[in-house]
Amino acid sequence: MNTISNIHTLKQELKSKSGSIGFVPTMGALHEGHISLIKQAREENDIVVVSIFVNPTQFLAGEDLDKYPSKMLADEKICDLAGVDFLFTPDINTMYTQDEVLIKAPILRSYTLEGERRPGHFDGVLQVVCKLFNIVNPTNAYFGKKDAQQLSLIKQMVENLYMDINIIECEIIREVDGLAMSSRNVYLSQDERLQSLQISKSLKIATKKIMSGINSCDEIIGYMENTLEGIEIEYIAIVNRQFEKIESIDLKNTIILVAVRIGNTRLIDNIWV
Ligand code: AMP
Q1: Which of 131, 149, 170 finishes a domain?
Q2: Per the count of CB atoms within 10 A, which of 28, 56, 111, 116 is most buried?
Q3: In this structure, are residues 87 and 76 in contact, taking their beta carbons and an 8 Å threshold?
């Protein structure tokens, strides 16, 4: 594996190779969730590129940018073992200059849910993903369903800007007890880690109720609120795959999303039904 932090060098290397390029953008502190994306990229492409860049423009003031977990040596090893060809590790001055052309996420779809709690977050996400796409020029780019709204907005950006890239949606990887893997799980104390199990439990109960025939979204949300009792809920939302709020469940076209705060840690999860 070749670890590269310079844009020009990476572009030159990629130009000298032929075949499909699979790309997995990350912010590092890699876990099994990231690894599943990398493995899929490895299976489906000739060349695999992973980027690790903690993108400051997607963090709001007061969020965890300064303490975002970092473990570059371990991440390098993980990528190497997973068969990554190029690990791209730019620094902030490589990625950004002053007074740049900006990308604006679509107003209606990016200022609800995550975007309502984190206004401007998706502008930063699309900005960096657009830059990374232009640097790597991937055939296929891999994103987790864990960040469902992000995934949907990236698909829209690719469509709206006529980018010739396939966006591959990857399943959510969970701990054996159900907690969705996240780099932020390391912030949880032992007690908080136990509490966090209620999140995936609430999604499981929602699915069970849907399978038993209940299709009123309000009713489903009620069951989830009961399961999450004692936890600070930021939102529970039921949307279709276009991220429009729906009143009743439409099987194979529904996403149930939840965001909570446990102590100082913000956790999100969802299930596609
Ligand atoms: P991040 O490093 O948090 O920016 O995540 C990089 C990519 O990994 C994004 O496409 C995420 O959606 C994806 N990802 C993060 N956690 C998981 C997970 N538990 N399962 C599947 N994909 C994930």
Answers
A1: 170
A2: 28
A3: yes
Digit-coded pLDDT (tens) for 139-191: 999 999 999 999 999 999 999 999 999 999 999 999 999 999 999 999 999 99
- Residue range(s) defining the domain that contains residue 195: 183-272
Whether residue 111 sits in one domain with residue 20:
yes
Active site annotation includes 34: yes
Q: Is 267 in the pocket of ligand 1 (CB under 6 A)?
A: no
Rounded distance between C-alpha atoms, residue 27 and residue 43, angstroms: 22
Q: Which of 95, 153, 104 is nearest to 128 (CA)?
A: 95
Q: Are residue 32 and residue 133 in the same domain, yes or no?
A: yes
CATH of the domain at 238: 3.30.1300.10
Please name the residue ranges forming H helices in the chain: 7-15, 32-44, 72-81, 92-95, 107-110, 113-117, 121-136, 148-160, 190-195, 197-211, 217-227
Atom of ligand 1 nearest to the CA of 146: 12
